[in-house]
Write a structure and sequence with these properties.
By secondary structure, this protein is an all-beta fold. It contains no helices and 11 strands. It has strands spanning about 5, 10, 20-25, 35-40, 45-50, 55-60, 70-75, 80-85, 90-100, 110, 115-120. Strands 2, 4, 5, 6, 9, 10 and 11 form a 7-stranded mixed β-sheet that branches. A 4-stranded antiparallel β-sheet has the order 1-3-8-7, with no helix packed on it. A hairpin with a 4-residue loop joins strand 7 (about 70-75) and strand 8.
Length: about 120
């Protein structure tokens, strides 16, 4: 019954910064690893980052190395995706999802949020 809702997307200029939020309800966030994904029209969904239940972060996309990071505040049932030095190629719908291996960042994810649009343009 885990539910996730993304927010914080919008229009930002290249080089700008944005922070997305993933609010979890239905169950406590405490035990779950949360992944961030993105998808642009006509492109495959891309796994970007994942944060495990202990706060360890894994980066799956070389294109965001040094620019994106994720963090969690279990007391607020919220995971954050912090993005800086944004580029037009970052334009996509961003999703958060809970790992089906619960505490660890595995391959399979479920309980997807609805997504939030990030547009990077001048």
């Amino acid at each position: 019954q885990l539910r996730l809702v993304e927010s914080g997307g919008g229009l930002v200029q290249p080089g700008g910064s944005l922070r997305l939020s993933c609010v979890v309800s239905g169950e406590s966030l405490h035990y779950y690893a949360i992944g961030w994904f993105r998808q642009a029209p006509g492109k495959e969904r891309e796994r970007v980052l994942c944060i495990d239940s202990d706060g360890g972060v894994t980066n799956y996309a070389d294109s965001v190395e040094g620019r994106f990071t994720t963090s969690r505040d279990n007391a607020k049932n919220t995971v954050y995706l912090q993005m800086k030095n944004l580029k037009p190629m970052d334009t996509a719908v961003y999703y958060c999802a809970a790992s089906m291996t619960i505490a660890t960042c595995g391959v399979d994810f479920g309980s997807w949020g609805q997504g939030t649009q990030v547009t990077v343009s001048s």
